[in-house]
Amino acid sequence: MTKDDQLQATVAFAEINKRADSQPGLIKKINAVIVFDVTKDGKIQKSWTIDGKQGTLYEGKPKEGTTAQVTITVDDNDFVDLASGKANAPSLFAKGKLKVKGNVMLAQKLSTLFKEQSKL
Amino acid sequence: MAALKPLLDAECGTTNPLIKLSQFYTRDNTLVTQDGLIKPATNNFTSANLTGGSNATIDELVNEYHRPISAPNTFHLEGLLTGLRLADDNVDNTNKHEYEWTTQFLDSFTNDFSSHSANMPNKNNNFSSSVIHPPTNHQIQAPPHIINDFNIQQHSQWMPWNEQSYIPQSTSFTLNSNSNFLDQQSSTIDAGFDNDTVKAAQNILSLLQETQFAADTEFKDFVEHVAVGNGEESTVDANKQQATGDAKDVTVDKWINEFSNELSNESQWQTDWTSAAANLSSLDDQIPRSQSWLRHLMDNGDSYSEYKFAKTNTFLEHSNPFEEGLKRLEAHDIVNAVLLFEAAVQKQSNHVDAWLYLGITQSENEQDGPAICALRKCVELDPKNLQAYITLSSCYANELLTNEALDSLRKWLANNDKYSHLLSNRRPQTTTDEPRLIDELAFEELQELFLQAVSLSNNPSDIDSDLQVCLGVLFHLPGDYDKAAECFNTAVLAKPNDALLWNKLGAALANGGQSEKAVDAYYHALTLSPGFVRARYNLGISCFNLSAYKQAVEHFLTALKQQSDGIGPQGTHVQMSENIWRTLAIAIGHLQRPDLEQSVINKDLTKLLDEFHIE
C-alpha cells in the first residue's frame, strides 16, 4: 500500500485559506504563531504554520525568525473533523486526539478559522 | 458498565439520564437551600429546552467545578483525585450522583481510549463532553466553601500544564481508603504511558514530596510507578466506590486552609508557574508576552480609538436625538436607534449615556468595531460604568481580544460595589494597567473571583444576572462553551425578557455545537426584539451549521435588509455589517448558485432580496 501523499488536511487548509482570503484580518486576529503537525498512522506527515502576526498561512514549519507559540499535533482524520466544524478542539483535546504544546488559550482562537463564530 | 451506557450515549448536556441523578442530588444533605427546600423550577421554558433550576444553576456550575475535570492526556490525574476524594468521604451515602458522574466522565475517557467508540455523537461534541455536566433542571445550593474546591481544580482541561504545578499543593487528602478505587479494574486505560505522562507523573511526584501527602500512600506509589515508566494498567474508574458521600465539610475546610496558605505563598506559586511555563520549551516568543500583549493593545488601540460616524445621518438635526434613540430602541428599531445615538454624541461629545447606548446598540447591530469605539469613549468619560464594561467584554470576546476582554471583566468587578471588596481581599495584585504576563493567570484569577462573587449571594433566588453574564463571557474565552451556556441560562432565568441574554445563550450553545438549542434561544431573542440584527445573524449561522443553507441565506438577507433600512435616503452600504455579507457569500456558495455570486460581490441587496422573495 503506497503512502497516500495527499493528506486530507491539505484540502482542508486550502479551504481555510479561502475563508481567510474572504476575511482579511481573520488570521491576524489570532495574533499568534500556531503550527499544526498533521500525523497519519502516528507519524508526522506535514506541518502547516499559521502566522497570526503576519496574517499568513503556509505549508511547512515556521519560517526563519518565527517561533511557534502553540504547536498542535493531530491526526489527519481528526483534523478534517476539526476544520469542518464537526468536532471542536477542546473536545478532541479532552479525548487526547489533539495534543497541544503551548498557550492553549491562543489555540482556542483557531475555532474562528474553522467555522463561523456566533456572536455574544 | 452496560448500565452506564444510557449515561454515555446521551451526551452530557442532554438531560434524560441525568434527571435520574438529580434525584440523588436533591437529596443530598449538604446541598439544600437555606430554607431547607429545593425550589422547584418556577419558569417554564421547556420549549427552549431550558428548564431549570431557577435559582441554583450557577451553584450547579460551581459544584461542577470542584469535580475534577477531564484530564487532557492519558494520565488521568484528576480522575485519580476524584477517586481519592470519594474514597475519603464516608459521610453521606446519598451522594451516589457524584461517583456516577465521575464514572460517566471516566468511562467516556476510557471508552475512547479502549474502543475509540463512536459513542460521542458529534452534535454535542463540545468541550465538556467528558466533563460531568449537571442537568439544567437541578436545583442545588452549594455551600459556599465548595467554591474553594473549585480553586483546586480550577484549571480546566484546556490548560494541561497547570496540573503539573498546581494540583497536589492544595490537597491534604488522607489517602486511607484509596486502595478501594485503585483496585477497580473494570475499565482500563491504554497500557503503557507515553513520555508526557511519565513526565507529568514525575512532576507530580516531586510536588507530592513537598506537600502534606502522607508519606506512604498508594497514590504516591502509583505516581512513582508511572514516573518510573511502568506502563501499568491502572484504572481511574471509581465505579464501585464504597465511599459515596461528599462530605466536603471536613476535607474542604482542609482545602480552604491549604488554599489560603497557597495564596499567601505567592512566590512559590509563581516559581512553580514559571518553571512549568519554562517546561513548555520552544514556545517562548522572542518578545516576552507582557510586551507583546501591550503592543497588541496599542495596535488595537489605533483601530478602536476613533469612532467613525455615518457619512449621512438624517437625524443630525433632530432636537433630542438621545431621547428619540431610546424610544426607537424600545421599539426594537435598532438601526435607527444607532443613527440617533450617533447624532446625540455628535451634538454633545461628553454625553456618557449616549456613548453607552451607541455602543450597546451597535453591538446588537452586529458591528462590534464601532461598538468598542463607543464604549471606550464611554468609560473614558465614566470609568465606573459597569454596563459599558460588561458590553465591552462581550465585544472583545467576539473579536478574540482575550486580554482586553479579561481586562474589562476585571474592571467590572473592581467598580462594582457589591463585589469590589473581593479584589481588595486578595493578595496584593499587580494593577490592571500592568500587562499580564500570560493570559491564563488573569483568567484563572478572574474565574476564582467571580465564583467567590457568586457564592456571596445567600439567597438562591437572588441571581445577579450581570454577574452570570460576566462569568459566561469568561468561560466563553477559552472555549468552555457549555459552562458559558449554563451561566447565560441562569441569567436568562432571572431576566427572561432580555433579548440580549437570549442571544448570548444562543451564541454559547452554537459555538459549543448545540445548534438546535441555539436556534431556540435565538427565536426567543427575536420574538422579544424582532429588529435584533445580531440574533438574526446568529440564527443564520446556526442554520448554516445545520446545513440549512437556504434558510441561512434568508436570515442573512433579512438582517442586511434591516440594516439597510436604517440608512437615510442616500443609503450607501457602509452601515451594513461586513460579517454578514461575508457569511452570506459562503452560504450562497453552498447553494450552488453561481449566478448569484456576482450580486453578492457587488452587494446588490435589492436583487438578492428579490431572488429569495424577502420583502
UniProtKB/TrEMBL annotation, chain A:
One of its GO terms (cellular component) is cytosol. InterPro entries: SCP2_sterol-bd_dom, SCP2_sterol-bd_dom_sf. It holds the Pfam family SCP2. It comes from the Eukaryota. Residues 13-115 form the SCP2 domain. PANTHER family: SCP2 STEROL-BINDING DOMAIN-CONTAINING PROTEIN 1, STEROL CARRIER PROTEIN 2 SCP-2 FAMILY PROTEIN. This is SCP2 domain-containing protein. It comes from Adineta steineri.
TrEMBL record, chain B:
GO terms for cellular component: cytosol; peroxisomal membrane. The keyword Ribosomal protein does not apply. One of its GO terms (molecular function) is peroxisome matrix targeting signal-1 binding. The keyword Ligase does not apply. Keywords: Cytoplasm, Peroxisome, Repeat, TPR repeat. GO terms for biological process: protein import into peroxisome matrix, docking. It is found in: Cytoplasm; Peroxisome. Belongs to the peroxisomal targeting signal receptor family. This is Peroxisomal targeting signal 1 receptor. It comes from Adineta steineri. The lineage of its organism: Eukaryota, Metazoa, Spiralia, Gnathifera, Rotifera.
